[in-house]
């Protein structure tokens, strides 16, 4: 057997020398004797060189094989040579094949030998790094000869001539039929989609019956055409709600198409100029149809909480978002605010104490909303506390002003002290965020049995679940606006302290940019109520004053801004400038003609911070969600750890290209 192996490894290229000798003979017959002699000399030299090289390689192979075989006992040797599975030995560091059995030779195309062949030439998709990492099974299936294999193996070390070398032995198990069956199973798994005309009432309000019928008929036709792409079952559940059941193999087509149905439905416009919009909620990867339907319902709820006019896919682990670029319109009703106010009043009255906290590094909106919740608790006679950790925040001036009020003596606590005071009946109110990883104290959130959430940001894939009250309105301008509405139903404006009214007003002014952005009728109603409570806009304006150094830093950022695409301004600072300065620079960039959205990047400790603002239809939240951020359509932010500013800038460019490329294909402008 040993001699057979060595003969198998001997290179056979004698045919090439025979061809060269034939050429020399032809040259001699043509009368070019000198040239023929020269060719014979060259062939002789090559033959000698090849013989020496072959001898050296044969000796090396003989020594290596002898070492392998000598290290095995007779039973191990026989089991290796007669292995029922295709087997190949190779050097993992170089990929050079050392030996294989007959079964693997047949897989490789009935080659007589594989010596001096690279594994990359035999199976380009095979990667041996898993062997070097100490694993015994290849993480991916390998395709060879039109078949699919699961590869198992191990690695041994051998020493020869004082040098240590590695030898990998791999066994190839044919799993083609199993893999094909698995692929068919995955491709035919059911997917359930719920389609909701989210502004149906707004589009048909005040329209004639023939206009309503024509619009609905046009929308249904577009839905039917879109559903036919998946060859699924399309049903109409209600006048504005539809169900589509299809196979998972068609889902990727819808994803690649970026759910063009969203744009198609938006083309249907009523005589008043209001376009129709649709929300798509999709459930995938469920064990039962009941769970699949529940996933689809959760997707619809998530999409509506983010403003509607988008598609959301829910699996058993997370959400995936598509669309959501259209400008949000106010769809709130006072009925919901009244119901939420009643529920909030009951929760506060039943609590032993009320703890209020916002997001990390709170701003005026978070602190103002927290003060408003404390006003409700004070009116109910319930002890109340605001979480304030000893770190610098943009709202430090407002914190200090609140702390000076006699009614708020001892109200500001750090998160550790709040944990000690909380009990089983404590109510935790989270304001200005709905993401558990963004709250000031995750430990306090996890320890409280009763939680209420008041927020205006669009819901992200991670959100605070199981809250006793969730007053979430993405159409509101600020959390202070929502808290002011609750106050309007629970207490008289005269019961509100002047300092509390001004704190709420500061949050309103911050998020609306002095009532110039994201304002609705309810925003001004809330501001009017706070004004009646004694809030002085002049006093509030003082909170927004900045010192000369910050002003210089802000305009230095603006000076470095460059245009990307048609109306995107991106400013990069190589040093930390602070969140307030960056946010103000982003706001100031929007005052420049031709700028529809702005992004400011700067390093902060071990991360890069982005502050984004938008005046146009550009949804900066969707853009920054690709980088792990969030916020609202007009104001968003992100914190990216472990990367440089240049790396984050490249990722931002990619996110912008993806956003605009799928929206309208606008060309880049020169930066």
Give structural notes.
This protein has five domains: 69 residues; 99 residues, Beta-Lactamase, CATH 3.30.450.20; 125 residues, 2-Layer Sandwich (Alpha-Beta Plaits), CATH 3.30.70.270; 209 residues, inorganic pyrophosphatase (n-terminal core), CATH 3.90.1640.10; 116 residues, Diaminopimelate Epimerase, Chain A, domain 1. Helix 2 packs antiparallel against helix 3, helix 14 packs across helix 19 and helix 19 runs antiparallel to helix 20. The N terminus and C terminus are likely disordered. It contains 26 helices and 23 strands. With 671 residues, it is of the alpha/beta class. It has a six-stranded mixed beta sheet. A six-stranded parallel beta sheet has the order 14-13-12-15-16-17. Strands 18-19-20-21-23-22 form a six-stranded mixed beta sheet, with helices on both faces. The protein starts with a helix and ends in an 8-residue tail after the last helix.
How would you describe this structure in keywords?
disordered C terminus; disordered N terminus; 671 residues; Beta-Lactamase; 6-stranded mixed β-sheet; Alpha-Beta Plaits
In short:
The protein is of the alpha/beta class and 671 residues long. The chain is 44% helix and 20% strand.
Secondary-structure blueprint:
Blueprint: H1 2-9, H2 14-29, H3 33-70, H4 74-81, E1 87-90, E2 97-100, H5 102-107, H6 119-122, H7 129-132, E3 142-144, E4 147-160, E5 163-174, H8 176-187, E6 190-197, H9 200-204, H10 209-227, E7 233-238, E8 241-247, H11 251-256, H12 261-266, E9 278-283, H13 289-305, E10 310-314, E11 319-323, H14 334-350, E12 354-357, H15 364-380, E13 384-387, H16 396-403, E14 412-413, H17 415-421, E15 427-431, H18 442-447, E16 450-455, E17 469-472, H19 479-490, H20 498-512, H21 521-532, H22 537-542, H23 548-559, E18 562-564, E19 568-572, H24 579-589, E20 597-604, E21 607-614, H25 620-625, E22 630-631, E23 635-641, H26 645-663
Parallel strand pairs: 9-10, 12-13, 12-15, 13-14, 15-16, 16-17, 19-20
Antiparallel strand pairs: 1-2, 1-5, 3-4, 4-5, 6-8, 6-9, 7-8, 10-11, 18-19, 20-21, 21-23, 22-23
């Amino acid at each position: 057997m040993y001699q057979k192996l060595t003969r198998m490894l001997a290179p056979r290229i004698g045919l090439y020398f025979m061809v060269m000798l034939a050429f020399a003979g032809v040259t001699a017959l043509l009368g070019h004797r000198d040239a023929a002699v020269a060719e014979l000399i060259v062939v002789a030299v090559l033959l000698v060189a090849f013989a020496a090289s072959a001898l050296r390689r044969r000796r090396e192979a003989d020594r290596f094989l002898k070492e392998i075989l000598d290290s095995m006992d007779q039973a191990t040797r026989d089991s290796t040579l007669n292995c029922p599975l295709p087997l190949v030995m190779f050097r993992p560091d170089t990929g050079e094949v050392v030996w294989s059995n007959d079964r693997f030779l047949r897989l490789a195309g009935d080659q007589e030998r594989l010596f001096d062949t690279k594994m990359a030439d035999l199976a380009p998709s095979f990667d041996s790094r898993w062997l070097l990492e100490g694993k015994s099974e290849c993480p991916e299936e390998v395709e060879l000869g039109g078949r699919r294999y699961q590869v198992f193996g191990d690695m041994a070390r051998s020493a020869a001539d004082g040098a240590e070398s590695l030898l990998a032995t791999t066994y190839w198990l044919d799993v083609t039929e199993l893999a094909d069956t698995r692929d068919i199973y995955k491709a035919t798994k059911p997917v359930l989609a719920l389609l909701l005309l989210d502004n149906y009432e707004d589009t048909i309000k005040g329209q004639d019956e023939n206009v309503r019928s024509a619009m609905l008929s046009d929308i249904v036709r577009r839905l039917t055409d879109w559903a036919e792409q998946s060859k699924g079952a399309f049903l109409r559940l209600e006048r504005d709600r539809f169900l589509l059941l299809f196979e998972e193999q068609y889902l990727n087509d819808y994803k690649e198409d970026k759910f063009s149905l969203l744009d198609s439905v938006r083309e249907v416009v009523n005589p008043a100029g209001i376009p129709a919009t649709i929300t798509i909620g999709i459930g995938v990867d469920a064990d039962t149809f009941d769970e699949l339907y529940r996933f689809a319902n959760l997707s619809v709820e998530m999409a509506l909480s983010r403003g509607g006019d988008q598609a959301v896919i829910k699996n058993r682990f997370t959400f995936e978002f598509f669309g959501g670029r259209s400008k949000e319109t106010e769809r709130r009703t006072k009925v919901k605010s009244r119901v939420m106010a009643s529920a909030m009043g009951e929760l506060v009255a039943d609590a032993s104490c009320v703890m209020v906290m916002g997001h990390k590094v709170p701003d005026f909106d978070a602190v103002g909303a927290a003060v408003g919740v404390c006003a409700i608790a004070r009116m109910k006679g319930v002890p109340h506390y605001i979480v304030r950790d000893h770190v610098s925040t943009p709202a430090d001036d407002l914190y200090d002003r609140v702390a000076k009020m006699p009614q708020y003596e001892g109200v500001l606590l750090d998160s550790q002290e709040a944990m000690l005071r909380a009990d089983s009946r404590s109510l935790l109110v989270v304001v200005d965020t709905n993401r558990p990883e963004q709250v000031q104290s995750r430990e306090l959130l996890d320890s409280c049995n009763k939680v209420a959430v008041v927020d205006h940001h669009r819901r992200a894939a991670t959100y605070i679940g199981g809250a006793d009250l969730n007053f979430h309105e993405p159409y509101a301008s600020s959390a202070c606006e929502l808290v002011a509405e609750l106050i309007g139903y629970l207490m008289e404006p005269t019961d509100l302290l002047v300092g509390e009214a001004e704190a709420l007003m500061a949050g309103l002014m911050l998020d609306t940019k002095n009532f110039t952005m994201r304002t609705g009728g309810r925003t001004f109603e809330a501001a009017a109520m706070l004004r009646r409570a004694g809030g002085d806009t002049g006093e509030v304006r003082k909170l927004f004053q900045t010192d000369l150094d910050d002003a210089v830093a802000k305009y230095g950022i603006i000076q470095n801004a460059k245009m990307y695409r048609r109306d995107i301004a991106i400013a990069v600072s190589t040093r930390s400038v602070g969140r307030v300065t960056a946010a103000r620079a982003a706001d100031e960039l929007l005052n420049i003609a031709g700028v529809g959205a702005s992004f400011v990047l700067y390093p902060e400790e071990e991360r890069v911070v982005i502050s984004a603002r938008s005046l146009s239809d550009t949804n900066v939240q969707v853009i920054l969600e690709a980088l792990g951020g969030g916020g609202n359509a007009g104001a968003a932010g992100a914190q990216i750890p472990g990367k440089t500013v240049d790396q984050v800038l490249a990722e931002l460019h990619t996110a912008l290209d993806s956003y605009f490329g799928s929206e309208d294909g606008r060309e880049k402008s020169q930066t």
